[in-house]
Amino acid sequence: MRDTIILSGVTASVALALLRNARAGQEVLARPWPAGVPAPFVSVIVPLRNEAANVAGCIGGLLAQQYPHFEVIAVDDSSTDGTAAALRHLAAGARRLRIVPGAPLPAGWTGKNWAIQQGLTAADPAAVWVLTVDADMRLAPLALAAALAYAGDHAADLLTLLPRLELGSFWERVLVPHAGELYTLLVGFMHQVNDPASPVAAANGQFILLRRAVYDAVGGPAAVRGEVAEDWALARRVKAAGYRLQMAPGRAILRARVYASLGQLWDGFSKTLFPAAGRSVPRVVLTLALLSGYGLLPPIRLAIAVLALARAPAAPERARAARRVGLGLAQVLPLLALRGAIDHYLGISPGYALTYPLAVLLGDGMLLWSAWRYVSGRGMRWKGRTYG
Known about the structure:
By secondary structure, this protein is of the alpha/beta class. It has two domains: 122 residues, no CATH class; 216 residues, Spore Coat Polysaccharide Biosynthesis Protein SpsA, Chain A. The protein contains 13 helices and twelve strands. The chain has a seven-stranded mixed sheet with strand order 3-2-1-4-8-6-9, sandwiched between helices. The chain has a three-stranded mixed sheet with strand order 5-10-7. The protein has a two-stranded antiparallel ribbon with strand order 11-12. The longest helix has 32 residues. It is elongated, with a radius of gyration of 23 Å.
């Protein structure tokens, strides 16, 4: 009985902490750049490898930004799917867009870091800020102006934003909300990232706005050249050097659909889970124990209690089984409330809260798979290349 009560308390506490984190941070709202205020020059770098389907949406949105001083540098990382042709079509008459054909990938570099390095080399020396954007991002016309204003308001040296996620398939709605929870447990909470006194550092590689001088001071892309989770590695270097990080929701100005199928979700998240954990096996074990303890064990115990109640032959046994059902509900309901609140925030039907145990089971599997692939030296396959 005591262990059940303790587990109920732990479940409720973790659920509340994760819910607070999901809703943490001041939302970045769309707003124009203030009239009469000098606008710092921004170099926007977009690494592209086989992203023909995303060129128009991402690059087109960047070129439509309502901000006076910026350039867009699209780095074609040896694409084979028509990305280069899509870029050339879009570049006709687009004075702000420059296309950089990617050079062969050097040993020890990941493709994304090498593409960003080439973009940075080609960037205008007058750039005060560098913005790196993934191809799956879609920016509202005022996104760049709003992000720069927000960074200035919060004295940020690195600003990273979380987009509104577009979730189309069943597996996206099951796994993506839990993936955010999983990364939070592995890396840290948003308020810790934004606290200069906390060593916790993280960033979302889909959208990182960084002062060029700070980028150079911490070694640029070369300093994290071999990191698959380059966003967390870069954030850690920036914060360790004494610069200020700021993470915030950018749902009003950014949107993205990251992965669609279960296979894409598994490969995409597995690629970065173990690196996000700092390649720490003890941290992985602790996270797995915590996830299983509050995400899988309570539903299992509730199911066992319900079966015992259904089979109880006499009143005393039924009373004991009913108490176990009540305690099981006390453990499971906070989980359902957490997942329901997060799903509501993400625009998902509350009914998907019932898939929480499935999400935890898949999340445990992805984390184990990621750790095993890296620790065993097999690495992860991504876009035709093997890393780690």
